[in-house]
Amino acid sequence: MNQFQRLVEQTAADYDVHIVGNPLLMQLSQGEVTQDHYVAYLIETFHLVRHTSRCLALAAARLGDERRGLRAWFLEQAGDEHGHELFCLNDLRQLGIRAEAALAALPGAGAWGLVAQNYYMATYGNPVGLLGVATATEGMGATLAGRMAQVLEQSYGIPHVALTFLRSHAGFDQRHLKEAQRAVNEQLVDDADFALVVHARRMTYRYYGQLFQDACRAATANAERVRTDLSQPVPA
């Protein structure tokens, strides 16, 4: 069993609890999701991914020549991830949402926690921990994004042109996951690094599960607001 296989084994329960059993994914499969859910997901995701390339670049800058291979991997990933938040903005606009106004709000607890965790490891803690984040997020993109896009388009009528973030990451993340697997197997040099990567992967699943729940709550709140507005008498 290689290091990546050990990593997956030691975090499988976290994935099952926080992602597979997440209320948002369950609602999606049961036909209970609305466009409000998808809009809320895009907004939370924007707040998260706009920081990804910066965190990776900061992490690379803190690695010395003794970790040259990992530094090169972080820099390559930083370039690949740069600008992916623009997919979210495009999708929001295709749905008729004024993206700038929608994104003026602060992120929910899940996106906030992920961003804080990633900047901490990149700038103060051990940058190697970002391998745990990468393997978790790239794995979710590779296995879930394409299926989510298909269901949203075929079962919910979300326009194809408003699914660019999910559709693109279904492709990007297949390659990125293989690269992350190779980095885990080749770049983790001691038990302390491996333990940190396991912890970061676990926490990433927990925070991502929270992000999904934040999207659920935001969608419900928006629906309640709309119902309240519609129930008000129209001025004469």
Can you walk through the features of this model?
The chain is mostly helical. It is 78% helix and 0% strand. The protein is globular. The relative contact order is 0.18. Residues 223-236 have low confidence and may be disordered.
What value does the average pLDDT take? 88
Oligomer: single chain
Q: Runs with pLDDT <50, length 5+?
A: 223-236
Radius of gyration: 19 Å
Number of strands: 0
**Helix-strand pattern:** HHHHHHHHHHH
Q: Beta-strand level of the residues, as a percent range?
A: under 5%
Number of helices: 11
The shape is globular
Helix and strand topology:
Blueprint: H1 3-20, H2 23-29, H3 35-49, H4 52-61, H5 68-81, H6 85-94, H7 99-102, H8 109-123, H9 130-156, H10 164-187, H11 191-231
Helix pairs in contact: 1-11, 3-6, 3-8, 3-11, 4-5, 4-8, 5-10, 8-11, 9-10, 9-11
Question: What are the salient characteristics of this protein?
Answer:
single chain, about 240 residues, mainly alpha, 11 helices
Summed up:
This protein is an all-alpha fold.
